[in-house]
Design goal:
The mean pLDDT is 90. Helix 2 runs parallel beside helix 3. Strand 5 and strand 6 form a beta hairpin. This protein is α+β, with helices and mostly antiparallel strands. The chain has one domain. The protein has a four-stranded mixed sheet with strand order 2-1-5-6. The radius of gyration is 15 Å and the shape is globular. The chain has four helices and six strands. Bound molecules: zinc ion. The site of zinc ion has 5 residues, from helix 1. The site of zinc ion (ZN) has 5 residues, from helix 1.
Length: 134
């Protein structure tokens, strides 16, 4: 299985004036980095972390799936998503931040059961308020 976390680079760096999203985005990246460290223990072949910059319409993704929605008459591309590709090549896309965090924290917990190291990620208040891990 392969996974790709895609986030907004500017939100990650706190440049988009949205502190809640910054906190949640940083949690996602921290979780993904933790999962990547232990991926071999939990049967993940690769986990990519893609930080998308403004004006960057896509194309840099390891797993080329982008969620779009229509707002008014404009197409909006989601800048945050988690894509999972199973061994049969099926793609699962999670566009909701709460789902992304839930999937990532479950993988962190799973890694924790496979090693003597204490593997955990302290989530921010903002992420906890999404109902993750409850
Ligand atoms: Zn942003």
């Amino acid at each position: 299985m392969r996974m790709e976390l895609r986030v907004c680079k500017h939100c990650h760096e706190g440049e988009h004036g949205n502190p809640d999203k910054t906190a949640v985005t940083r949690d996602m990246v921290t979780c993904a980095e933790t999962v990547r460290e232990y991926k071999d223990l939990i049967g993940i072949d690769a986990i990519y972390i893609t930080k998308v910059a403004e004006g960057d319409a896509g194309g840099a993704e390891a797993l080329p799936v982008v969620v779009a929605s229509i707002a008014g008459d404009e197409i909006q591309l989601s800048d945050t998503q988690l894509v999972m590709e199973d061994d049969d090549g099926n793609m699962l896309v999670y566009p909701e931040p709460a789902d992304v965090l839930e999937v990532l924290t479950r993988n962190v917990q799973q890694a924790n059961t496979h090693t003597n190291n204490d593997v955990s990620v302290e989530l921010s208040e903002e992420s906890l308020s999404l109902g993750v891990g409850t």
